[in-house]
Structure formats: structure tokens, C-alpha cells
């Protein structure tokens, strides 16, 4: 049985100590796109929503999973070629800096699509 997180604060606090600053910065970057995000836990990972979910993220041993949805992934497929990805998600390796400008652009697009 896996642990059920109750908040993004708890998720970050219980993450590996080395990854906490990255998760905090990722959270700040996402929130800088839209001050009206509702932060919650969805699918047991940090979720940012407006009228509907815009994006999620999750920490793994060697990467950060970022989940902006299939439509956003399709729009940014050329910019994401260097990363392992799936229909609605991308993996950003922890041994490289996260591409915050790209992430913010993806979140901005997600906000527009959710309107």
C-alpha cells in the first residue's frame, strides 16, 4: 500500500532531500504562470488546476516527470525531442538543469487550452 499525500507541501517535504529544491523551484515556476492555480494532489502527485487540471509533476530516482497532457506535448514535440516522453508526459533527467523556460511555455499553453 503506497502513501497517500495530502498536499504539495507534504509531497515535497517527504521527497528525497536532494530533489526538494528542484521541486520547490518547479512549483514556483508553474505558479508564476498563473496566480490562480488551485494546488492539490491528484493521482497522488502535485497537480495545478484552473477549471480543469493543467499539469502535474512527480519526483523519481533519476528524473522529474512532468505531465502537461497530450495536446501540450504535441505542440512542443520538437522542443522535447531530446527528452524521453510519452503521449502526455516528459521526463527531465535530474543530472541536468530543468528547462524552466520550456516548462513555463508548456504551462502557459496548458492554461490557454484549459480556458
Outline the structure in words:
It is a single chain. The chain is α+β, with helices and mostly antiparallel strands and 115 residues long. The chain has one domain (8-109): Aspartate Aminotransferase, domain 1 (Alpha-Beta Complex), CATH 3.90.1150. Helices cover 36% and strands 26% of the residues. The chain has four helices and six strands, in the order ααββββαββα. It has helices spanning 8-13, 20-33, 70-75, 100-114, and strands spanning 38-42, 45-49, 53-59, 63-67, 84-86, 89-93. The protein has a six-stranded antiparallel beta sheet. The longest helix has 15 residues, at 100-114. The mean pLDDT is 96. Residues 20-108 form the YdhG-like domain.
Number of strands: 6
| Portion in beta strands | 25-35%
Q: What's the domain count?
A: 1
Q: How would you describe the shape?
A: globular
Name the assembly state: single chain
**Spatial strand sequence of the major β-sheet:** 1-2-3-4-6-5
The CATH C-level class name: Alpha Beta
Q: Helix and strand succession? A: HHEEEEHEEH
Helix proportion range:
25-40%
Q: Give the biggest sheet.
A: 6 strands, antiparallel
Task: Determine the mean pLDDT.
Answer: 96
Radius of gyration: 13 Å
The CATH architecture category equals Alpha-Beta Complex
Structural class: alpha+beta
How many angstroms separate the termini? Answer: 36 Å
Catalogue the unreliable spans: none
How many separate helices? Answer: 4
The CATH topology corresponds to Aspartate Aminotransferase, domain 1
Protein name: YdhG-like domain-containing protein
Domain YdhG-like: 20-108
Organism: Erysipelothrix larvae
InterPro entries: YdhG-like
Amino acid at each position: 500500500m503506497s502513501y497517500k499525500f495530502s498536499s504539495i507541501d507534504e509531497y515535497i517535504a517527504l521527497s528525497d532531500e536532494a530533489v526538494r529544491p528542484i521541486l520547490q523551484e518547479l512549483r514556483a515556476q508553474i505558479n508564476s504562470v498563473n496566480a490562480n492555480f488551485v494546488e492539490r494532489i491528484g493521482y497522488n502527485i502535485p497537480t495545478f488546476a484552473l477549471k480543469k487540471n493543467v499539469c502535474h509533476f512527480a519526483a523519481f530516482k533519476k528524473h522529474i516527470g512532468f505531465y502537461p497532457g497530450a495536446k501540450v506535448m504535441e505542440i512542443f514535440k520538437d522542443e522535447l525531442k531530446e527528452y524521453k516522453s510519452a503521449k502526455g508526459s516528459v521526463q527531465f533527467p535530474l543530472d541536468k538543469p530543468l528547462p524552466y523556460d520550456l516548462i513555463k511555455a508548456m504551462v502557459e499553453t496548458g492554461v490557454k487550452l484549459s480556458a
